[in-house]
Amino acid sequence: METLLEVKDLHVHFPTPDGVVKAVDGLSFSVRRRETFGIVGESGSGKSVTNLTALGLIDRKAARVSGEVLFKGRDLLSLSKEELRRVRGKELAMIFQDPFACLHPFYRVGDQIVEAILCHDNVSKRQAEQRAIDLLGAVGIPRPQDRFRDYPHQYSGGMRQRAMIAMALSHNPDLLIADEPTTALDVTVQAQILELIDRIKNEFNVGVILITHDLGVVADVAQSVMVMYAGRAVELGTRDEVFENPQHPYTWGLLESIPHIDQKGSRLIPIEGSPPSLIHVPPGCSFHPRCPHRFEPCDKEVPALVDRGSGHLDACHLSVEDKERIWNEREARRTKAVS
Questions:
Q1: In the chain, where does DSSP find H-type helix?
Q2: Contact call for residues 65 and 58 (beta carbons, < 8 A)
Q3: Do 147 and 129 touch, CB atoms closer than 8 A?
Q4: What pLDDT digit, counting tens, does each position of 257-280 carry?
Q5: How far apart are alpha carbons 266 and 259 in whole angstroms?
Q6: Within 13 Å and on the Cβ side, how many CA atoms surround 224?
Q7: In which element (H, E) is residue 228 found?
Q8: How many angstroms separate the CA atoms of 163 and 35, rounded?
Q9: In terms of Cα–Cα distance, which of 312, 115, 293 is closest to 226?
Q10: DSSP assignment, residue 270?
């Protein structure tokens, strides 16, 4: 499959009076067409900043940005504001976290989608209106011809998110970035939105970046998963590799801190401590103050993100044998607790 986006050694630092915030600190990954690429991590790990930088929505006067963000061979970081405007929304679109904040309360939903269409396409207003109605129907809005004229407050939370997806699809983009699209939605609507994004990926032949802090979300729809911590990638692989054979202690902690259907009545295992300040990132492995398996190199040497075989990458000083032993022991304890 065609590679749509390739991020190479991306750094995004924000100078502040208290010090430099290292929001993204040497990130590399790629996304292919018709692939859902999940980015997982706690709040403040750099997930959203990475993609806002790719879209040109980070104030370059307030941030120090280096590296490359290649979209279909073009480095987005080298484009002018006008060139970025021609790409953003047309070839590269984003579904933001809070649709109610993104939709203007004083304008009808349909008119806002029409405005997005007319921004890039040389069509009549009537043609744009019909396309907006068709898109609302395509994303599952009932009676789209009538709901076209409703205001955002007349839509439910799930319908507002569907309207944002319709707006993002208005120009048949090549890559769709979904920034926590199921936040604040109930479980049933969340499943519907994820199913819709998965269907759109195939019907519209697009690549999808799915940003979330919920491993259950990426387990449903992602083909590849990148786990981020303190502005860096700590694990990168296929969904099956990350969920069935995780290689980083932080990933182990994430997997053990979520409920499983076979663990009824058992206690969840939280990750001790708190995420570090991005101004004062710990030396060596940034996760080492919270890691129960740390040893001498962890607090001095930054582990490189390396391939342990078959394209499964992780950034940890533990040997492959030690990881396998520790993970098997943890799984055995979990199984014993359940039984």
A1: 47-54, 81-87, 99-102, 109-120, 125-138, 144-147, 157-168, 187-203, 215-221, 239-244, 249-256, 320-338
A2: yes
A3: no
A4: 877 666 666 677 788 899 999 999
A5: 9
A6: 19
A7: strand 224-229
A8: 22
A9: 312
A10: P
Residues 193, 168 contacting (CB under 8 angstroms): no
Q: Which two tokens stand for residue 236?
A: 């990168």
- State which amino acid sits at residue 291: C
How high is the mean pLDDT of the chain? 90
On the question of pLDDT at 213 being above 70, the answer is yes
Please give the pLDDT value at position 266: 66
Joined tokens for residue 320: 């492959």
Average pLDDT over residues 166-187: 89
Calculate the alpha carbon distances from 297 to 38, 214, 285, 302 in Å.
Answer: 30, 30, 9, 8
d(CA 277, CA 322): 29
For a pLDDT cut of 90, what percent of the chain falls above it? 65
Confidence of residue 78 (pLDDT cuts 50, 70, 90): very high
pTM above 0.85, yes or no: yes
pLDDT of the residue at 169: 92
152 neighbors 100 (Cβ within 8 angstroms): yes
Closest CA to 29 of 55, 50, 60: 50
Structure tokens at 312: 């499964």
Smallest CA-to-CA distance from 327 within 293, 287, 297, 301 is with: 293
pLDDT recorded at residue 113: 95
Distance, in Å, from the CA atom of 94 to the CA atom of 296, rounded to the nearest integer, reads 42
Output the six-digit token pair for 238: 């296929």
Helix 109-120 to helix 157-168 angle (10° resolution) is 10
**Token pair of 283 as six digits:** 């030396």
How far, in whole angstroms, is CA 305 from its chain's centroid? 19
Q: What is the pLDDT of residue 22?
A: 95
Q: What is the pLDDT of residue 311?
A: 81
